[in-house]
Structure formats: C-alpha cells, structure tokens
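Continuing the batch. This is chain 6 of the set; chains 1 through 5 are on the previous pages. Same settings as before, nothing changed between runs. Recording input and output for traceability.
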Amino acid sequence: MKTLFHLLDTCIVPPKRFTYPFNYTPHPLCIMAAEEVQEYVKSRDAWKEEVDNGKMFGVLVVRDEHQQLGFLAAYSGLLDGKNDWEYFVPSVFDCIQPDGYFKIHEREISRVNEEIKRLEQDDELRCRKEALAETKQQAETEINDYREQMRQSKQKRDKARADSILAPEVEKSFERESQFQKAELRRIKKRWTENIEVAATALEEKEEEIRMLKRQRKDMSDCLQQWLFSQYDMLNARGETRKLTEIFKATPQGVPPSGAGDCCAPKLLQYAYLNNMTPICMAEFWWGRSPKTEIRHHLHYYPACRSKCKPILGFMMQGLDVDPDPHDSDNDNEELKVVYVDDYIIVVSKPSGMLSMPGLINRRCVADVLEEQFGSGYYMPAHRLDMDTSGLLVVARSENVLRNLHEQFAGRNVRKRYGAVLDGMADVQKHGFIRLPLSPDQNDRPRQIVDYANGKPAVTEYEIERTEKGKTYIKLFPHTGRTHQLRVHCAHADGLALPIVGDPLYGHPSDSRLMLHAEHIVFRHPVTGKKLVFTEELW
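Output for chain 6:
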C-alpha cells in the first residue's frame, strides 16, 4: 500500500465536494498529483513507445485512514501487458493470470480462430469458389451465345416473310424451328442450373463449416465476456457491492460494453474503498499522440467516458457528496434575443448555455422562452445549435413552415457562417476546406469521431481572419450539418489541429464559454419566398 498511496505535501485547500467526473475543471490538488504522475511516466523508458502512442491516466486525491492527504494513480486497460504495476492501483479483477479461467478459455477461442483462418485460406475452399464462378461464367456464355443464334435465326425468318409470301410448309418449318430453339434454350438453362447447384452445394459444405465455427466462437466469446463481468464486484461509498452485469441491466444496451470496469475512474474508486480511503477529487489526462479517430491532446484533461463509466460511477459515487453537473443547472438569467418575428417564423440569437430543444438536463430551451414572450403556440427550431454554441436560430411556428424549412436545409439551399476563436496560432493556409467523415463515438456519446470507414461525409470551408495573442479568429462555413462538425474539424489533427476556445469535449475546459457563434444565415421565407439575410457577429 505504501507504494500506491502517494503523499501530497501542500497547503492547497481540498474541495468541499467530490468532482463530478463527466464535466469538470481539474482541482489544483488533481493538477499537482497529475504532474507527479507525468514525471513518473516520463522516467519509465520501457513504456515510452506504448504511452507515446496514447494512453489515459487518472489521479484520485484521497485521505487515508490516518487522515493523511495523498493520491492514487491509474491507467486505463493494460500497460506493457500488465495491470499491476506497483505505482498504480490494480484492476478491479485480474483476468490475465496465465493459468486463470479467463486466459484458459481465451486460448480455446484463439484455437477456434486459428481453425477458422485455416479453413478460410484452404486450397479446397478456393478451388470450390473458382469452380462455382467458372460454372456461372460458362453458363452465361453458352446461354448468351444461343440467344444470339436464336436472334439471327429470327432475323432470317422475318426477312424471308418480308421478301415474299411463304408456302404453308415453309411457314410451318419456321414455326417448328422457333419452337425447337425456345425448348433448347430451356434445356440449356436447366442443365446449367443443375451444374451451378452442384458447384454451389460443394462450396456451401465448406462455408457452412466456417459459419458453424464462427457461431461457436461468438457463443464462447459471449459466455466468457459474461463470466468476466460477473467477477467485477463494484463498491460504493456506502460499502455496498454490485456486479457489473447488474449495473448495466438498466441501461439501453443491457450488458456491459467491452472494457467496462477497466477505465481509470472505477479502478481508483474501487481501490480507495477497499483500503478505507476517502475520495476528495479526481481527474483524468491523456498522454501521447491523438488516435486517428478520436481527438485527444497530450496532457489535456478529459471527463470520464459515458457509455462505459457513467453507469458504473453512478453506483460507485453513491454515498459521496458530489458536485452537480454544471450543465444541469438553472439558466433563467440567460437572455434570448429576438431578431425577427412574423406569423410564420421567429429568428432568435440564442445565448451559449441554452438548449435549442428540450433535453435530458434541467435547462430551459428556446421554445420555453418563446412561450413566455409570445404565449402558448408552436415553436420548433428548424435546425440545431449545440447548447454551448450561441447565435442565430430559425424557429418555425407551424408544421407546414417547419417542413418547408427542413426541405431548404436538406436541399442545401440555406447558407450559414460561424465565427470562432481557436486556442492557438493556426499553421494552415488562410482559406481552405476540411473533409473528415464523422460518426458517433459509441463508447462516449455525444462525442463524435473521425470514421473513414463508416462515417457520414462532412465538409467545412474556413477562412482565417487574424491571429493574435495566441488565438486564431476564423470564419467557418459548414457545407454539411453533422453533429459537432465544426468542433471536430477544428480540433482534429487532420483538420485545423486547434480546438475552439472553451470546448470541454474536443479541447480542454476553461473559464471561457465555447467561442463558437452562428453569426450569419441566408434562406427563403417559407411562405413569401423572399430571400432573408440575418447577421449577428461574435466580434
């Protein structure tokens, strides 16, 4: 325990409540602890290659049973193939013992994998695939050749009929020829259908063997995963325990996702509870290069992931006095500026922090404020702005109007411009385009990832206005409307490589609001057809 509990010699006053792990600014105690961990990681040359490729680390400031102030450290998953390095807390459950249940059954699955791979590369399977393809090609060739023969014969008969009146016996011979050729075509098709079925059956025998092994592999993997998660007995501050499988029963997916329980936060809290320590505050930081899909910056702090950790931490933090979610707070003082209003539409300038539409958190949305100002009615935004994004928003006052506006957006007949301030000096050409396909991060919604395989196309045009005092002032023109498109395109290494100031998801938390503002929009009035132009600039 002495090697895992690291004393903090400081006069920094601890926070009154525990960190809300999904939206936070790191407490100075966490920053102090994290800097010690960073120095330690830097000193371990054996880990350099692995951690430089990207790794999440976490710190938990605690008081031990003697009321000494210190911290625990953790890393997500494995480090250099181990989960029990002495400086860091161990995993909640050790599944990597060579002779343990998990590894024994993992090796059995690996053997099935090897057999599948062997069968997929088998010469006999290749020969049967080639035989089926060749049979289909021969069938197509012979059938097409015979059809061409039939066509030429018909042309000759038609020409003979056109040139003169045919004797009855000649006409009958033509009819017999046509009937014979049609019957012969059916016989050819039947023969090749039978040949193809023989070749397909031969191939099916080999492919069914592979499919059977894949089903066996899936069943074995599912059973092993279920067994593994049943070994995780998570603790909370009240001393209660609950298995991962029970925790995730109430979630939409119903089962724990892969890797659940092995992130920093659950490991840190579990060790603290097991050793009678009191959690004070917690933070997680990224070390190394950003992955190609996600946006992670070296030594930046990040919230715990939502799909894996939120259900777990929701249980583990029971009994702690936890900070409220900063997003789940009253915003009655935020002003909604009405820029334009008529019987059909309302154009507003939404403040940062207000929801465009009703959400899962306890905040007023645009429709709530409009009802207060104009009375009950139909108020539906025709497009969305992130809660933290400010700027122009078009609101429909009827379903027909909304339908027309949606058609304009779908047809890309609406032009929008955003103003943004980037956290750093941009090292790119003054004007250009960013093309990075996006899809939701299934493990950490609402975060988006760059996904070249399955992502939806996303295109942003940009124009840099100026750079000063370590910031870049930029105009952004979205040509598509993907979730978090501008934020990801700015922050990603293959985009502008600079996050927007105040972006806690793709940059780092700050005292500033998200410096992204929808400042210009052009569209047609849904009833009069008149071109409408609105501008409300950020600076």
